[in-house]
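pinning this so it doesn't scroll away 📌
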Amino acid sequence: MNDTTTNPDHAGLFGIASGQAGYFTTAQAHDAGFSSPLIRHHVRTGRFMHVARGLYRLRDYPSTPREEVLAAWLRLAPKAVVSHESALDILGLSDVIPDAIHLTVPRTFRKLSPALGVIIHTTVRPVRPRDIVNRDGVRLTNAARTIVDVVEAGLAPDQVQRAVRSAIDRGFTTPRQLRSAVSSRGRRVQALVDRAIGEPG
């Protein structure tokens, strides 16, 4: 950990926070040369806002849409990814407004202390690099993985059809990629996805 004599890299920290809607973690601040006492000093003087344990925000950074999703994700990053209805919403594949922030972590991940309004999904199916996309600094499941996850979680069939058709029409995925993603899931999930792929838009 850096001590108080380290020269803090304000520009470097601003660059990190700028890619994360103004948010940054304690670890990221330390990497930029900010010691814990210096972080606390900036909180007291109003330069930084303490959002949650290990999470801060530049006080004067402009607000952005869905920044609460990014903040929730950063608390569990890099193990977590935004998923399910939250990923569906960010990708613009559904008109359903999520009633919580959905994150997926490996089942072996033990740092499970979700904030109010956050749902943690654990999985034994690894979220591989090819299953992930980046939107405005947030790592989330791609269209195919998101659709399969929400179908397995019980998304209404009409919403499944809408999401599948939208993802294919916008080039986010293909029928082949969807069938590959759903191949390891149950028969009900496979049948719903196959039906949605086969239905006209």
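📌 and the second one:
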Amino acid sequence: MKSLPFIAIILLANVSAQCGELGEAETAALLAKIAASRSGKAMTATFDETKTLPMMREPIRERGTISFEPPAKFLRRTDDGNLAVSDGKTLWMYYPAFQQAEKYPLDARGPGALFSMLTKVFQLDDLPKHFRVAASKTDDGFRLVLVPKAGAMRRMIGEIALDLDEGLRLRASRILGNEGDRVEATYSAEKFVPLGATDFEFAPPQGTNVVSPMGD
């Protein structure tokens, strides 16, 4: 078999290095750069999400907008009006079609704790504190694979993968649960907005049935 020219070997080696997993120091530097680029800023983007659940024959697809503001504010609004919003202390999940709202304290188990952790994930701040992080260079950006450290979170989530472009903007995410569930999303129009520009407060509309599944 004819051997590759020396220059081709060099080019292939460069491509492999560019698309391969980053070392520990390189990963730490990348995470620091990402955190610095978002420090003191709020973010908003549009999303297109597909959720696959073992008990359902067809995936659930949703579109909408998503916003984050440090240290712990979160807003997710779908095109059909469903809402998940946190002011950093309380998580509300509102379903206008059913005139029902669910209220969760963020220090509780279940959705409150999960959304609190996901807020940290999508703000891309202090990730090594909560996850084992593997970073790699892709053809057009970076990929972060996060594995939860805490036992309680590991029981809910197997891993989270985040794709960023060269400008460190979020492009896609994949969350793998431990029960065969999977949530995949793509993001567009990500932009930074001034702190306080987004309203993270929620008051149930009149006539809404409010329930507290965690007893609070």
